[in-house]
Amino acid sequence: MITLYYSPNTYSIAALIVLHETGLAFRLIEVDLSNQALPDGTDFHDINPKGYVPVLELEDGERITELAVILSWLADRVPLLRLAPENGTFERIRFMEALNFIATEMHKANSFLLSPRIDDATAVYYRQWLRGPYEWLDQQLSTTQWITGDSFTAADAYAYFAVRQARHLGINLGDLPAVDAFMNKIQARSSVQAVESSRAALIDADCRSFPGMPFARPVLSMPTTLLPCM
């Protein structure tokens, strides 16, 4: 059985959504990012020296890190579900483009607003600057059912949490109708409903790791008012 190391209300949610989509058997191990510890007291750095979730541990003990890679691996595990286009196709290139754009321009970029050191004026600037990627997403979704075409893929699960987080961080997305329609549609999926009703989606989860410093021991404390985290 594969194992997902996760923390509530982080981008682990995207991996968990795709796990539910695949129907694969899995178990969850929650990571306390405030002290980088597992429930049994094990230092999470022993699992992932980067200090980030999610981590996917395979049946043979191999571990995969980096969410975009985890999502691709899960999608390829059940190819008939077409959670990712077939390798070697140009559609796969577009899928990889979407994953990388979400990872760098949404996921990582949102982390600026999670820093406990950011002042109000800088936060206002970043909220305006960070609208750009979501405007691209709105334009993309105005011509397709899902991000890469007419079929739901793992990229949509990734974008879902990015939008969810952006809204919570105060980035104004209210005038992006295609994004709104996308969120309404994806929230109707049973996989998303299963995750949102679980502990994994707790909006008040105590996630206090300091984005950008995953290697720190101990991890710097971060106010819970800056949730959700990465």
Q: How much strand? A: 5-15%
Structural class: alpha+beta
Q: How would you spell out the order of helices and strands?
A: EHEEEHHHHHHH
* Uncertain ranges: 203-229
- Give the overall shape: globular
Q: Helix amount, in percent?
A: 40-55%
Protein name: Glutathione S-transferase domain-containing protein
Organism: Pseudomonas cichorii
Domain GST C-terminal: 88-215
Domain GST N-terminal: 1-82
List the helices and strands and how they pair.
Layout: E1 2-6, H1 12-22, E2 26-30, E3 55-57, E4 63-65, H2 67-77, H3 90-110, H4 120-129, H5 131-141, H6 154-168, H7 177-186, H8 190-196
Parallel strand pairs: 1-2
Antiparallel strand pairs: 1-3, 3-4
Helix pairs in contact: 1-2, 1-6, 1-8, 3-6, 5-7, 6-7
General description of the model:
The protein has eight helices and four strands. The chain is α+β, with helices and mostly antiparallel strands. It folds into two domains: 2-81, Glutaredoxin, CATH 3.40.30.10; 90-190, Glutathione S-transferase Yfyf (Class Pi), Chain A, domain 2 (Up-down Bundle). It has a four-stranded mixed beta sheet, with helices on one face. The longest helix has 21 residues, at 90-110.
How is this structure best summarized?
With 230 residues, the protein is of the alpha+beta class. The protein has helices at residues 12-22, 67-77, 90-110, 120-129, 131-141, 154-168, 177-186, 190-196, and strands spanning 2-6, 26-30, 55-57, 63-65. The chain has two domains: 2-81, Glutaredoxin, CATH 3.40.30; 90-190, Glutathione S-transferase Yfyf (Class Pi), Chain A, domain 2.
Descriptors for this entry?
Glutaredoxin; disordered C terminus; Glutathione S-transferase Yfyf (Class Pi), Chain A, domain 2; 2 domains; Glutathione S-transferase domain-containing protein; 230 residues; alpha+beta; transferase activity; GST_C; single chain
